[in-house]
Amino acid sequence: MGYYTAVEGDITITPPLTWNEFKDSPFNPQRATRNFRMDVKLRVIEDSVDTDEGQLIRRTATAIVPAIGDTYKAYYLVEHTQKAIDSFPGHVFSGHLECSGEENGDLWRCVIHDGRAVKVEPRIVWPDDDPAY
User: Fold this and answer.
1) Is residue 125 part of a domain?
2) How far apart are CA 78 and CA 82, in angstroms?
3) Exposure string for 34-45, b = 16+ CB within 10 A, e = fewer
4) Torsion sign across C-alpha atoms 68, 62, 110, 9
5) By C-alpha distance, which of 27, 13, 18 is closest to 80?
6) β-strand partners of 61
7) Is residue 19 part of a domain?
8) What is the pTM of this model?
9) Domain assignment present for 28
């Protein structure tokens, strides 16, 4: 059992990671689900490139995304996002992961501020004492 969270969105990586940069990473989606229990993984794009020797498959990682496409126990989402950022120096990370828990009103985001993954919770603001309300 446990508390489940729905996680959506992505954190883009500029410039994208090359295969050599992420092939042995615990965030590589081929390794993340089998060998490691990470709350995030890399989005990997594959392109076919024609060469003199035939077609070459080029893999690049363009974003940090939720580990699973469904709800899951994202207990370490912020920490794992920061670990992914720290694993790839020389790249810029931007964007956010939007999270909603099982309980009503449990909304938050994992946002990147100055290279740091930060948990941000929404603020509820009541309108001023306006007679229209």
Assistant:
1) no
2) 6
3) eeeebbbbbbbe
4) negative
5) 27
6) 17, 44
7) yes
8) 0.88
9) yes
Q: Taking a C-beta distance cutoff of 8 angstroms, is the pair 12, 94 a contact?
A: yes
Tally of structural domains, the chain: 1
The 10s digit of each residue's pLDDT in 8-48 is 999 999 999 999 999 999 999 987 555 568 999 999 999 99
| The pair of three-digit structure tokens given for residue 38, joined into one six-digit string | 């990470």
E-only strand ranges, the chain: 5-18, 40-51, 54-66, 92-101, 107-113, 116-120
Contacts with 105 (C-beta within 8 Å, 6 or more apart), sequence order: none
DSSP assignments along 4-41, one per residue: -EEEEEEEEEEEEEEHHHHTTSTTSHHHHTTT---SEE
Q: Closest Cα to residue 117, out of 72, 73, 81, 69?
A: 81
Whether the CB-CB separation of 105 and 112 falls below 8 Å is answered with no
Domain that holds residue 76: 5-120
Is 126 domain-assigned?
no
pLDDT in tens, 46-97: 999 898 999 999 999 999 999 998 899 999 999 999 999 999 999 999 999 9
